[in-house]
Amino acid sequence: MGAHNPAPTCALKGTAVGRAGLATTRRVRAAPTVRVGRRTVVGVTDEAAARREDGRVPEASQAGSAAQREDRSLRGPQSQANEAAQREDRSLRGPQSQANEAAQREDRSLRGPQSQASDTAVLLTSPRDGTPRPLTRPAELAEVARLFAAGEGPVAVDAERASGYRYTHRAYLVQLRRAGVGTVLIDPLPLDDLSVLGTAIADAEWVLHAASQDLPCLAERGMRPSRLFDTELAARLAGMERVGLAALTETLLGYTLEKHHSAADWSTRPLPPAWLAYAALDVELLVDLRDALAGELERQGKTRWAQEEFAALAATAGEPPRVRPDPWRRTSGIHRVRGARALARVRALWTLRDEIAARRDTTPGRVLPDAAIVAAAEADPRDERGLLALPGFAGRAVRRQSRLWLDALAQARGLPDSALPVTPSSDGPPPPHRWAERDPVAARRLARCREVVTNLATEHRVPPENLISPESVRRLAWTPPEPLNAGTVAQALAALGARAWQIELVGPGLTEALPTR
Predict the structure, then answer these.
(1) Is the pLDDT reported for residue 248 higher than 50?
(2) Which is nearest to 367 in space by CA: 335, 397, 342, 326?
(3) Predicted pLDDT at 261
(4) I need a surface site. Which of 49, 109, 189, 371 has the fewest CB within 10 A?
(5) What are the phi and psi torsion angles at 197 (to 5°)?
(6) Distances in whole angstroms, Cα of residue 33 to Cα of each of 40, 50, 254
(7) CATH number among 1.10.150.80, 2.30.40.10, 3.40.50.300, 1.10.10.10, domain 327-419
(8) How far apart are CA 348 and CA 374, in angstroms?
(9) ω before 127 within 30° of 0 (cis)?
(10) Contact 119, 38 (CB under 8 A)
(11) Which residues does residue 15 pair with via DSSP β-bridges, in sequence order?
């Protein structure tokens, strides 16, 4: 049975945002806690509520998770590149990499004492100063900007999007926390331009988790950092086994965060109180986590590595997303489609779906699944009956637009051969599985280079894709510089975007692996 603990009065003073949206200093009461089994749940007052907090997974979150899996195109370009690199280049993770992962599990030196018994970690369900209401008025934003400009230390920053629900990448809630101010939630829908706040904190260090996901939508609102600390990237460089925010706070700080609302539709208005509490908690411990990770990086001698990585992220924070040529070619399952005419059908259906999704501001996968596009491209139905018999076309909303889908197929059917898709030219190397056939010598070079990267990643306890991008290794192995020496290899890596610390680590080994033999 869980025992109910009364909420003790906390002797510390906290800062919160009051009803007018301005910072107020007051004595705060520690959040009530309830024991459930061996877990401590903070922010609830009875055991039944604690059990609900400890195990609830809302339907909206489940739906959001499914939608996110369906529509990866909503992810930011850097995030897409990281995921693609990890999927495509698994061969970097050989037996030695597996041994490294085992060593990481065995070496608990990265874990705090609380984390070694995760079931004793404190579960946080509400912010220490209460949940502030989102600010919606320009006057409130201006006052908060003044307060944050006068605050102290780093600024914890986070943003919530509606990935899996909306067409755009825009932020639907922005959360900030700074010493001397407390936590502030901002609703960017009525405010739109947050540049006054961005200017107020531009010179401060921003602390974000997975910064590449949030920086584009923050820049769209006028907020760009001059320097930052990315807790997820720091954890990767430190060789941490789990790098999610909740996992890191549990491992390093002894607190568990609720993540049930991470896949919620944040364009919902009004936002439920539980969602707002979740959002506030996302910045509650970020600065503490930053300090813990900075200490770990210093202990491992990796502080400069992290500084260079963070500087590269900050330098590109305001750049527009790279526009991919022929984005329809990223349709999931397109590899099953054979022939230029069938590819034209994929293109026509994808383009129509994208237009409808943009007009509705909904994720394309909710208009028509990729699997339905591929099925229609393969079958090329000529009438409604044939179309509706295909997988993915049975839904009521899809059926109502059957004439549009059929017209798109007819348009592709009527294209002259000269208008059909052609294989795009590429200045890069072919997919790795084709190297042995296309250039056996280059394939052997690539194998040696991958071995170098794998060994170094194991030695320094860094994921291979963070040590050096797999794309850089492939390009270097496919077209080595001439003349081939340490200097030209370093120049080639720098031109591909490698940072100085990466070049120092991998340059010598790659120089030895590249000569033809």
Answers:
(1) yes
(2) 397
(3) 84
(4) 109
(5) -75, -40
(6) 6, 9, 15
(7) 1.10.150.80
(8) 11
(9) no
(10) yes
(11) 25
Calculate mean pLDDT across residues 54-61.
38
């999927």: which residue's tokens? 87
CA distance 440 to 217: 44
Please give the CATH topology (third level) of the domain spanning 108-315.
Nucleotidyltransferase; domain 5 (3.30.420)
The residue assigned the tokens 């054979």 is 338
The domain over range 432-513 is classified in CATH as 1.10.150.80: yes
**pLDDT digits over 339-370, tens only?**
999 999 999 999 999 999 999 999 999 999 99
Which residue from 513, 435, 499, 447 is spatially nearest to 468, judged by alpha carbons? 499
Give the total residue count for the chain. Answer: 517
Residue type at position 516: T
The whole-angstrom separation of Cα 237 and Cα 240 is 8
CATH 3.30.420.10-classified regions of the chain:
108-315
According to CATH, where is 1.10.150.80 located in the chain? 327-419, 432-513
- The more confident residue out of 257 and 498 is 498
- Among 78, 97, 95, 71, smallest CA distance to 471 is for 78
